[in-house]
Amino acid sequence: MDTLDKTDLQILSILQNNARLTTKELASQVNLSSTPVFERLKRLENGGYIKKYIAVLDAEKLNQGFIVFCSVKLSKLNRDIAAEFTKIVQDIPEVTECYNISGSYDYLLKIHAPNMKYYQEFILNVLGSINSLGSLTSTFVMDEVKHNYGIPL
């Protein structure tokens, strides 16, 4: 699927706000019957436009509301070391996002923790055990001003 039409974009936009809509409810909002909307959904899923459907949880209520952005610089950088680092990070549940970035650091990690003490132990025992880690800088989130889960269409 190379191009998306207006209806495809409308479907994607609606699903970003509520992925629990039934096909019938979605069809009503885009003024089509259920069958063509179902076919479009399958095409969008198979084409990789829709990666997955998730529930957005409240980190505060789950005692994971201490958020840190951790900038990581590796001690040495090559293809194998980068691949090893990204593989290690994939298996660390506290790291909810990881980006390979340009600039002074190599990676930016978003980390959820219950509190500062937990994060301190996490740095010492988890990130600190990664051999290729050169240095890191922690930026603590004081307040979330905007968090939009969707992308502008």
Automatic annotation (TrEMBL):
<dbReference type="GO" id="GO:0043200">
    <property type="term" value="P:response to amino acid"/>
</dbReference>
<dbReference type="InterPro" id="IPR036388">
    <property type="entry name" value="WH-like_DNA-bd_sf"/>
</dbReference>
<dbReference type="InterPro" id="IPR011991">
    <property type="entry name" value="ArsR-like_HTH"/>
</dbReference>
<dbReference type="InterPro" id="IPR000485">
    <property type="entry name" value="AsnC-type_HTH_dom"/>
</dbReference>
<keyword id="KW-0804">Transcription</keyword>
<keyword id="KW-0238">DNA-binding</keyword>
<dbReference type="Pfam" id="PF13412">
    <property type="entry name" value="HTH_24"/>
</dbReference>
<dbReference type="InterPro" id="IPR011008">
    <property type="entry name" value="Dimeric_a/b-barrel"/>
</dbReference>
<dbReference type="GO" id="GO:0043565">
    <property type="term" value="F:sequence-specific DNA binding"/>
</dbReference>
<dbReference type="GO" id="GO:0006355">
    <property type="term" value="P:regulation of DNA-templated transcription"/>
</dbReference>
<dbReference type="InterPro" id="IPR019888">
    <property type="entry name" value="Tscrpt_reg_AsnC-like"/>
</dbReference>
<dbReference type="Pfam" id="PF01037">
    <property type="entry name" value="AsnC_trans_reg"/>
</dbReference>
<dbReference type="GO" id="GO:0005829">
    <property type="term" value="C:cytosol"/>
</dbReference>
<feature type="domain" description="HTH asnC-type">
    <location>
        <begin position="4"/>
        <end position="67"/>
    </location>
</feature>
<dbReference type="InterPro" id="IPR036390">
    <property type="entry name" value="WH_DNA-bd_sf"/>
</dbReference>
<protein>
    <submittedName>
        <fullName>AsnC family transcriptional regulator</fullName>
    </submittedName>
</protein>
<dbReference type="InterPro" id="IPR019887">
    <property type="entry name" value="Tscrpt_reg_AsnC/Lrp_C"/>
</dbReference>
<dbReference type="InterPro" id="IPR019885">
    <property type="entry name" value="Tscrpt_reg_HTH_AsnC-type_CS"/>
</dbReference>
<keyword id="KW-0805">Transcription regulation</keyword>
